[in-house]
Amino acid sequence: MKLLTYVVDRKEFIGVLNSEETWAYPISAVGMEYRSMKDLIREIGRSEWEMLDYITRRDPYEVPGAAPLRDVSVLAPIKEPGQDIICLGINYHDHAVESARFEKRAFEKQEQAIYFSKRVNRAVDPEGGIEAHRDLTKQLDYEAELAVIIGKDARNVPKGSAKDYIFGYTIMNDVSAREVQTGHKQWYFGKSLDNFTPLGPWILTVDSVEYPPKLNIQSKVNGELRQNSNTGLFINGIEDVICELSKGMTLRSGTIIATGTPAGVGMGFEPPKFLNPGDVVECIIEGIGTLRNTIVE
After folding, report:
1. Using an 8 Å Cβ cutoff, are 147 and 256 in contact?
2. Residues 167 and 236 in one domain
3. Per-residue pLDDT tens over the stretch 251-296
4. For a surface tag, which of 61, 100, 142, 275 has the fewest beta carbons within 10 Å of its beta carbon?
5. Pairing mode, if any, of strands 85-89 and 114-118?
6. Same domain, 232 and 125
7. Which domain-ending residue is among 17, 49, 75?
8. What's the farthest any 2 CA atoms get from each other in the chain?
9. How many domains does the chain have?
């Protein structure tokens, strides 16, 4: 099942895609009234899940308010995350190698997961613009990532139980200003500029795919394939990450965890292939879809 936030006829809706993924059905069609995706994630119950599953198989002409997907504007599924996004750094071996090469340091195998946070006031919509911030960076880069969305408050999650706390998955582009990132010797500022967090196009619910997910992940710039890997190659898997983090802090419902990016980012090429205004970046994950954005001045 895929849930989305969208606009049609200047009105915003929380909805679900039909089984053919050609129509958007508003959740109000089954009597659900949530103000935002965050509210739905926090409050949805079993009977409501059953109703949503049922409606996805209905003929669109039998569903009040249904709209063809081609006629709607898809927004980031969670437009305003309640907290900073938790990110994993260097979570694919091949990206660890290219990062060390770009920073001109010796490659060292990491022993612990690397965590950092990414501030986002408003996520960038699918098809939205990524601000170039040319006054701050000439090394604008992309990172296709699988984002995990926590469905209920998680604290002291035991091994083998992490899936029970996951609501679903979406795609994030961890846009980065490389010289800001490396110059500050930490990653927060260089990854947290305005319009640096495209998210979407929708949320794939956790039970819609095998667990842990082993999905092909790619990125393209102006149609050129740059990244091409699989989420089964994580150094630190989703289960371990949720269990480790929840030992020391509560992961609130709606928390977004970005799981890292594979090799093929702009800084990994010789010479580097950084982004410029007008470039179109596509982040693609099997089973979820494509997050497409354009670099703007």
Report:
1. yes
2. yes
3. 999 999 999 999 999 999 999 999 999 999 999 999 999 999 999 9
4. 61
5. antiparallel
6. yes
7. 75
8. 61
9. 2
Task: Please answer whether residues 55 and 28 qualify as being in contact, where contact means their C-beta atoms are separated by less than 8 angstroms.
Answer: no
- The confidence score (pLDDT) of residue 184 equals 85
Residues 130 and 167 in one domain: yes
- Residue-wise DSSP of 160-173: T-GGGGEEEEEEEE
Distance CA 121, CA 192 (A): 9
CATH of the domain at 173: 3.90.850.10
- Structure tokens belonging to residue 48: 């409501």
Q: Is the pLDDT of residue 103 over 70?
A: no
Return the sign of the alpha-carbon dihedral for residues 137, 142, 143, 149. positive
3-state secondary structure of 191: helix
Residue 234 within a domain: yes
Looking at the fold, whether 145 and 240 belong to one and the same domain comes out as yes
User: In the prediction, which pLDDT does 38 show?
Assistant: 97
User: Same structural domain for residues 163 and 104?
Assistant: yes
What is the SS3 assignment for 94?
helix
Q: Using pLDDT thresholds of 50, 70 and 90, give the confidence band for residue 95.
A: confident
What residues make up the domain containing 12?
2-75
CA atoms within 13 A on the CB side of 14: 20
Residue 106 has pLDDT above 90, yes or no: no
Cα angle at 201 between 196 and 207, to 5 degrees?
Answer: 120
Amino acid letter for position 98? E
pLDDT digits (tens, 9 = 90+) for 12-25: 999 999 999 999 99
The answer to whether the CB of 293 falls within 8 A of the CB of 280 is yes
Statement to judge: residues 203 and 233 lie in one domain: yes
**Per-residue pLDDT reduced to its tens digit, 168-227:** 999 999 999 999 998 888 899 999 999 999 999 999 999 999 999 999 999 999 999 999
Give the pLDDT score at 174: 98
In what helix (H) or strand (E) does residue 202 lie, and over which residues does it extend?
Answer: strand 199-205
When the pLDDT of each residue in the chain is averaged and rounded to a whole number, the result is 95
